[in-house]
Request: fold
Amino acid sequence: MRSNTAEAEESAAKAAVADHVGAADGQGPATGGIETAAGDRDAAGDAPAEAGGNDGGDGGDGRGDDGDGGDGGGPRAGSGPDRRRRRRRVLRWSATLLAIVILGGAGAGYLYYEHLNGNIKSDDLNLGDAKDRAAEPTANAAGQKPLNILLIGSDARNTAENQKLGGAKDTFDGPPLADVQMLLHVSADRSNMSVISMPRDTLLDIPKCTDPDDGHEYAALRNEMTNVSLGRGGPGCTVATWEKLTDIHIDHFMMIDFSGVVSMADAIGGVPVCVDASVYSHTRDGKGSGLRLPEGTHSVKGRQALQWLRTRYGFEDDTDLARAKAQHMYMNSMVRQLRSEAKLTNPNALRKLAEAATRAITVDDGLDTITRMYDLATELQKVPTERITMTTMPNRYSGPRVVPTEDAAKLFRLVREDIALDGKNARKPPATATTASPSPTVTDRAAPDGDIAVQVHNSTRGDGRAAARGRAATVTQLLAGKGFTGAVADTSTATSEKQTVIRYPSADLQGDAERVAEALGIPRSQVKRSTDVTGVTLYVGADWRSGSAYAPPKGEQKAEEDDNTPTSAEAMNAADTSQCMHVDPAYSW
Reply:
């Protein structure tokens, strides 16, 4: 059942456009020009148009070739002009839903609310078990929370058009793969945005997922390629996989397929890309995207844009890592293009863009109306282009695939702690009579030490060794000596943990759990939410078999002290206009 709030939002939005809309039947807007949120006539926005292809020839994917054969909230009541201006703003940001994805787009231009709403497809946000889900972040002092949105490029061959664009003639309507996965993080204060791409070749653990349509349960998988998650009930399983790996709470997802990329790229009208040499992405056995470009900068759209986004053979080392870099360059260029593109003030172009966007993507149920999209867009568009940072999850090779490294764990921690990946997080000055109080510390969010109940388990058994005797009692005494008089040793259950970890069941106990970690010198990355416990629970792991001081594993302490983005993440700034893909000479002509 829909909430009263959602119904009220729709009613307000419909009322807001009722007097001004004529575009759905081919009429132009009631007034000329497009206003931005600031009320001027600039059209601003940006959009990621990403999709992924499967090369098939590198094994394990169940897909064919990479290419196609070598083709070169509602306004409050008012009166007069102010009232009309507020009404027009309701649909302003729905010009392109992919522009909304990155920063919020140029105005939609008075399209019927019901018509665009009917175009939007939605699905469940998270198909995993509750115990695998990440805790929602704590609000800052101003009551703001960060936003995390998972962008998914599907390689589905579920239509004739997608089959033609994706090649692989023998995989029609097979299980789709999430061959592009990017986590978009918007800071709580909306000052910066970070994007983390995960290579589709990444091996990781996929949690159990339940298909919302038929109730089918997909068993958990170990050491599996991340892209298969999409075929296990839908995009909500890909969301669950990210949350299990990163412990980052994901608020929304947006998914696009091959034909969606082409229609969006056509509607946008071209995005500049650069290659440092001529490139033709093809191989003798039919692999490759078919992308063919001479050296220099070129505007790509439609099918050629899809080829750029899918190119693996021809860029740098011919791997999925190079493909992710090319996708970042495309997205950054699109951000700049849409922010400066004057032709987006053209009402007819905007109508085409809005139509293409609403038909191109699938979103979670929390974004399934134009009003909700508008609300999200008003937040995203606050971030300046120069504060957008694109990264790739740090990884190392494991056979022909890749696995996350310690640097990846650090990158995920920075996002969890809302630390900007461009290194420009401002240090807040100490509170004075004339300055605002800083954000709450761990102590501010926690109960007094003596009121925190902690269960302590001896989980030191592992690696062929028996549990170290008396560790639960020893650490309990250590906590009591630090003022945690509610600590109790629990010897009723034998457990085993390679690494010491503190678990808590709900958001209201997160501060307590972090305070215990702080007192013992345990990194916050080892404090996790779990429905397997009923209160703050400390598992003394095999990494703390003796002694009264916890020594973090090698690299963990540095991660806690160093908030710089790892160089292995290959950070790329959206305002950098010098970006140009390096071409593998073997694919140059």
